[in-house]
Amino acid sequence: MNECTDTQLIIPYKYKGLPVTAIGNSAFLDADALKSIVIPNSITVIGDDAFRGSNYFTSITIGNGVITIGKSAFSNCSNLTSVTIPNSVTTIGNYAFYNCRYLTSVAIGNSVTTIGNYAFYYCTGLTSVTIGDSVATIGDYAFEGCRSLTSVTIGDSVATIGDYAFDCCTNLTSVTIGNSVTTIGDYAFEGCRSLTSVTIGDSVATIGDYAFDCCTNLTSVTIGNSVTTIG
Fold first, then answer.
1. Can you tell me the distance from the alpha carbon of 184 to that of 199, in angstroms, rounded to the nearest whole number?
2. Which three-class secondary structure state does DSSP give residue 160?
3. Comparing 197 with 97, which gets the higher pLDDT?
4. CB–CB of 112/132 below 8 Å?
5. Tell me: the pLDDT tens digits for 116-170?
6. C-alpha torsion angle, residues 42, 47, 53, 55 (rounded to 10)
7. What are the residues whose beta carbons fall under 8 Å from the beta carbon of 15, sequence distance 6 or more?
8. CA–CA separation, 153 vs 35, rounded Å?
9. Beta partners for 207?
């Protein structure tokens, strides 16, 4: 449907008497005419590349039935400004919001367990992110290059902060790392040159290579009692 010319997309609950439960892979790839999207509660899966490269829509309403946001589902949607990810979602796929450079805020629901690799890579307008209480893994490069991000709270459920997860978040001034994190990946906070202090909880066992490399304003680091490896 990449030749879609409608400006508003409201996906129905039913089509020809049958329930609509998924948006297929590449369903609205490069659908440049779209300006707003409403996804009903009947949808459980937003497929890979479903809206990739649809450059003109600014808002999206994701229904409370969605469980999976597929790989690159909204990547390169360059005018998208805000997203609320409901509590039904458990997985945000790799590259899901890659290079959505005008995205300013993201609220991640309390059922998400995995934020995929490159999920919010170079969302340069992103100023705030709330990571829900069920997230266990923040993928590699998940928030790399989010230059407008100023603070991050990583909840107590997160066990792994991936390699380069917050690399080059140059305006990040504070990080709170929850009490379940065991691994901080290689280069996880490299180049966060506005970061001034970090407290690493007692659960952390491994701090990866160059995890805080080029954090030129970092003046205070508190390292918990369980750390056995500093890269």
1. 12
2. strand
3. 97
4. yes
5. 999 999 999 999 887 877 899 999 999 999 999 998 888 788 899 999 999 999 9
6. 10
7. none
8. 32
9. 184, 230
Q: What is the pLDDT of residues 29-80, one digit of tens each?
A: 988 878 888 899 999 999 999 999 988 888 888 889 999 999 999 999 999 9
How many CB atoms are closer than 10 A to CB 223? 14
**pLDDT tens digit sequence for 104-126:** 988 888 899 999 999 999 999 99
Instruction: Give the CB-side neighbour count of residue 108, counting CA atoms within 13 A.
Output: 30
Q: In this structure, what token pair is assigned to residue 114? A: 């995995």
CA pair distance 122, 82, nearest whole angstrom: 15
- Are 231 and 186 spatial neighbours (Cβ–Cβ below 8 Å)? yes
CB 92 within 8 A of CB 70: no
Six token digits for residue 184: 């901080």
Cβ atoms < 10 Å from Cβ of 107: 14
Under 8 Å CB-to-CB from 65, ≥6 apart: which residues?
40, 41, 42, 43, 44, 88
- With a threshold of 0.70, does the pTM exceed it? yes
Residue 116 burial (CB count, 10 A): 25
Q: Do residues 6 and 32 make contact, with C-beta atoms less than 8 angstroms apart?
A: no
State the residue for tokens 């290689």. 186
Rounded Cα gap, residues 82 and 104, in angstroms: 6
Q: Is 194 left (phi over 0), alpha (psi -120 to 50) or beta?
A: alpha
